[in-house]
Write a structure and sequence with these properties.
Number of strands: 10
Bound molecules: 5'-O-[(R)-(carboxyoxy)(hydroxy)phosphoryl]adenosine, zinc ion
CATH topology of the largest domain: Nucleotidyltransferase, domain 5
Strand content: 15-25%
Strand order of the largest sheet: 3-2-1-4-5
Order of helices and strands: EEEHEHEHEEEHHHHEHEH
Structural class: alpha/beta
C-alpha cells in the first residue's frame, strides 16, 4: 500500500485561527478558534487579531492532530496561508508552519487564500457521498475582501474572468449593516433578518458595469443616503423597517451576483458552477443559485457551511494537490498581504 500523505494545514489570514489535518485528500479534522475580541470594535482590529492568533495557534494545532488521530511525526508536509490577508495575522501562521516544518524536516507549502476558498469544493470526507466538480468549473468567490469569477481548469490552474472594481460583496453587507447599527460581521445578521422581511419593500439601483466585473460601492452609498433621508423624516425608520431593509438590500446584492454568474456561464459555456467564500453561506444567495441551476441545467456546488468562511481544511486540500506536484516552498518565504490575481 502506498504511504499516506498527511497534510497539517494552518489558516490565520484574518480573525479565525484554524488548523486542519488532511489525509490523501480527505479532511480528518478542521478546528476553528473564533476571535470574539473584535465584536466590541465593529470590525477586525489587526493588532488584536495577531495577538489572539499567537494565543490560539498551539492549542488549535494540538486539537486538530488529536481529533485526526495523528501524531506530529506522521505529518508529511505543512501547508499555510501565505496571503492575502492581514500581515500580522499571516505572520503568526507562517512562522508556526516554518517552525513545525523545520523541526520535523518536512516540506513547507505556501497557499493562496483565494485559491483555497475555491478548492474547498474538492474537500472530501469519509462516510459521506463526495460530489466533486468536473473541469472546467466556474466559481463565484464572494468573501469579505473579494468578489471574483474564476474558471478552474485544473486543481491548481485558475483563470480570473471577473473582479470587483471597488468593494467586495461581503463588505457591502458589513458596511450597510453598520449603517443600520447592526453588529459586525453584518452579513449573517442581514441574512437572518432578511429571512422574515419583504425583499420588494425598497428598491436600490444596481450598478451598470460592463462585462463580468462587479461594483458595490455605489449601492453602499445610495443605501446610506436613502436611510439618511428617511431617518430625517422619521427617526424610528430603521427600527420599524429593519427586516424589510435587510431583505431588500440582500435581494439587490444577490441580483448583482447572480446576474454576472449567469452571464459568465453563458459566455464560457461552463455549467459546472460553484459559489465559495463567506458570503456563499447566505441563504438567499444559495436559494437564488439553486433556482438558476434548475432553470439552466447547471450542475451546482454549494459548499457545506463549515467550508464557506475561513477554515484550514481548504488550505490543506490545496496543499494536498500542491504536494502531489511537489510545489514546495523554502524557508525564505514571507507572508504577502495583497496578492493580485
Ligand atoms: O471568506 P470570509 O470568512 O473571510 C474573508 O476571506 O473575507 O468572509 C467573510 C465575509 C464577511 O463579510 C461576512 O459578513 C460574510 O462573509 N458572510 C455573510 C454570511 N456569512 C458570512 N454574508 C452574507 N450572508 C451570510 N450568511
Ligand atoms: Zn476568506
Amino acid at each position: 500500500m502506498a504511504p499516506q500523505i498527511t497534510i497539517l494545514a494552518i489558516e490565520s489570514s484574518c480573525d479565525d485561527t484554524s488548523a486542519a489535518v488532511i489525509c490523501d485528500g480527505f479532511v480528518l479534522s478542521n478546528l476553528i478558534a473564533n476571535q470574539d475580541v473584535h465584536k466590541a470594535y465593529g470590525g477586525v482590529v489587526p493588532e488584536l487579531a495577531s495577538r489572539a492568533h499567537q494565543a490560539n495557534i498551539v492549542p488549535v494545532v494540538d486539537q486538530a492532530l488529536a481529533r485526526a488521530g495523528k501524531r506530529a511525526d506522521e505529518v508529511s508536509a505543512v501547508a499555510f496561508t501565505q496571503g492575502p490577508g492581514l500581515l500580522g495575522s499571516l505572520l503568526v501562521g507562517t512562522s508556526f508552519a516554518k517552525g513545525f516544518a523545520l523541526a520535523r524536516n518536512i516540506p513547507l507549502i505556501a497557499v493562496n487564500h483565494l485559491q483555497a476558498h475555491v478548492m474547498s469544493h474538492f474537500a472530501m470526507e469519509h462516510g459521506k457521498e463526495n460530489r466533486i466538480p468536473q473541469f472546467p468549473f466556474l466559481c463565484l468567490l464572494v468573501s469579505g475582501g473579494h468578489t471574483q469569477l474564476i474558471v478552474i481548469r485544473d486543481h491548481l490552474v485558475m483563470e480570473l474572468i471577473g473582479n470587483t472594481i471597488d468593494d467586495a460583496a461581503g463588505e457591502a453587507f458589513d458596511k450597510c449593516a453598520k449603517v443600520m447599527g447592526l453588529p459586525y460581521p453584518g452579513g449573517p445578521v442581514i441574512d437572518r433578518l432578511a429571512s422574515v422581511g419583504n425583499p420588494d419593500a425598497f428598491r436600490f439601483a444596481k450598478p451598470r458595469i460592463q462585462g463580468l466585473n462587479f461594483s458595490f460601492s455605489g449601492l453602499k452609498t445610495s443605501f446610506l443616503y436613502f436611510l439618511r433621508d428617511r431617518v430625517a423624516e422619521d427617526p424610528g425608520f430603521i427600527g420599524k423597517n429593519l427586516n424589510d431593509l435587510a431583505a431588500s438590500l440582500q435581494r439587490t446584492i444577490i441580483e448583482i451576483l447572480i446576474g454576472k454568474l449567469v452571464r459568465a456561464s453563458r459566455e464560457t459555456g461552463i455549467r459546472e458552477i460553484g459559489i465559495a467564500g463567506g458570503v456563499s453561506a447566505n441563504g438567499g444567495l444559495r436559494r437564488a443559485a439553486t433556482r438558476e441551476a434548475e432553470k439552466r441545467g447547471w450542475n451546482l456546488f454549494l459548499p457545506e457551511f463549515r467550508y464557506t468562511t475561513d477554515n484550514a481544511a481548504m488550505i490543506g486540500i490545496t496543499g494536498y494537490y500542491k504536494y502531489l506536484r511537489a510545489e514546495f516552498t523554502d524557508h525564505s518565504v514571507i507572508p504577502v498581504a495583497r496578492i493580485d490575481t
